[in-house]
Design a protein that fits this description.
The chain has 586 residues and is of the alpha+beta class. The protein has 4 domains: 6-191, GAF domain (Beta-Lactamase, 2-Layer Sandwich); 210-268, Beta-Lactamase (2-Layer Sandwich); 280-453, P-loop containing nucleotide triphosphate hydrolases (Rossmann fold), CATH 3.40.50; 456-580, Helicase, Ruva Protein, domain 3, CATH 1.10.8. It contains 23 helices and 18 strands. The strands form 5 sheets. It has a 5-stranded antiparallel β-sheet, with helices on both faces. The radius of gyration is 42 Å and the shape is elongated. The two termini are 77 Å apart. The relative contact order is 0.06. The chain binds adenosine-5'-triphosphate. Adenosine-5'-triphosphate (ATP) binds at residues 283-285, 311, 313-319, 383, 425, 496-497, 500, 562. Pfam families: AAA_lid_14 (PF25601), GAF (PF01590), HTH_8 (PF02954), Sigma54_activat (PF00158). It comes from Paenibacillus baekrokdamisoli.
Length: 586
Amino acid sequence: MLSVEGHDRTKVMNQSWKRCQDFGLAPSDPWDDNLLSETRIRELLDQRGPIVKHAEQVFERMSSFIKQTKQIAMLIDAEGHIVHSVGDPDFSCKAGLIQLKVGANWEERRKGTNAIGIALAEKMPIRVHAGEHYFVSHHFLTCASSPVFGTNGELLGVVNISGKQENFHDHSLMIASLAADSLQNRLIVEDSMKEHLITLKELDYTARNHPMPLLTLDKDNRIIRANQAALHVVGRDAIGKEFNSHKGFAVETIQDYQGKSWRSVAIRKPQSGDKHLYTFEDIVGSCPSILQRKELAYKAALTDFPVLLLGESGTGKELFAQSIHTAGPRRDQPFIAVNCSAIPDSLVESELFGYERGAFTGANREGQMGKFSAAHKGTLFLDEIGDMSLRAQAALLRVLQEGILTPVGSVKERSVDVRIIAATNRNLTEEVQEGRFRADLYYRLKGIQVTLPPLRERKDLLMLVHALLEKNSQRIPLLTEAAQRKLLDYHWPGNIRELNSVLVQATFLSDGGSISPEHLPIENIDQRLPAEDRSDVVTSLQDAEIAAIKQALRVTEWNVRKAADLLKIGRTTLYRKIEEYGIVFF
Ligand SMILES: Nc1ncnc2c1ncn2[C@@H]1O[C@H](COP(=O)(O)OP(=O)(O)OP(=O)(O)O)[C@@H](O)[C@H]1O
């Protein structure tokens, strides 16, 4: 900080003298003897703890200069009180006689023109030598003072060096200024460390309570922080391990102002596959068959027994599985759904139990957590369980029996705690009889069996229609009586999934008006054929086949495997026919 010299210094000095005169002080006045009490000094030291602690350290570093020049160094607070003093003992005694000691106040209005008073009033470093002091009693002094500022530029106090005028030293003002700067820097560093800690706590709190998975990675790509949601995804023991771009995480690198990268944050935003989990309240229905199933499933939710959900495609098996999970004691833990029919036979074990790094060619280099481990403490929903190969069934049975799994390529066993809910649209008893499904696995999965009724057997179709229309559009469209009749007459092979898709299309086609039969894209093939039989018009076999394929694809929302199941043909055959007839997505 620049000190004033020459003409400017004389000006500053004159202004100070003028202020003293205005205060009504006279140079020959006795000094003010209003010293702070011991208790008040202790209170002040407590309040100013950090600055005094730093001043002690800074003064320690300049102690040889202070001793050699027979001076004393002091810290003065922003109100002018001397709160700390060290230095030459002889001079300290002499200075004490004119109250240049801890507990005294050296503002101009109390002690006339002096270095401390001017540094406080003008907020600048200044030297006041001998006769420049206002009070005659201070003329034996030479003093140099420099102000100390806080982070926001507020005045925190003054560093002062004083001695007898004959011990005047050229460097005193510079040393006082350096000491003030050093004190100021230490306080700024301390403040920013406090700020840093608060920010870290704030971050930690926000991350912990954030529903999305969040990770922090160091510059070597190791995980250094992870919230609960992220630990579910990357594994509970992930801290310290290298992050290997888990699916769905978007990584953002954080750089300093020179563009040097320090760390990265990884966030896993909701993906199209991520949906909120359903609860029993989402299950619409008023007919006894569904109410009774709901009650049974609710009772099952409160236990830890396995649940087996049976029913045609689209009857709500996954909806029930999620509702059982969200109503049970594991609701805050993961719900992991696995479509057993979608896993190639050769990969079943690695998908379900995970694998260690380098387990097999084509595997992720760093290994991968299996579905069982991902569902640890939560629920594993094994959908389409009836489509699992016998080999995969054997592997699954072993884990269900022992609660222990061994990832592919590993020698270490791992215990898992998962609740199992399985579902299938196949008749499992028949599958067991035919030898396609293991009886022991069936009995282990069966626990509580809930069979969901197909839509054509339900008595609450119009209630469901109303609920689905309400869910899908802001303004519920009216249904003409003929449209209601058409819906009631249809046989709904795709169940509620198909009903929902038909209603979405009808709402769109009716363009804000009432929904009438022509807006409902359904044809009951079973009913149409006899009608056509009666007429002279004969539909070609090929046209009938195309119509059946189109309907199966629409009903299953273009799920080729399910459509093939409905048509009772193989998946490859269906693909071939789609291509052959040039059927495009509609
Ligand atoms: N009772 C119901 N109330 C409201 N919506 C329902 C009901 N049952 C099913 N749905 C809806 O129907 C659609 C199909 O349900 P879900 O996926 O649970 O059927 P699923 O039996 O598991 O089918 P799949 O065997 O083909 O996997 C979903 O959109 C679901 O929300």
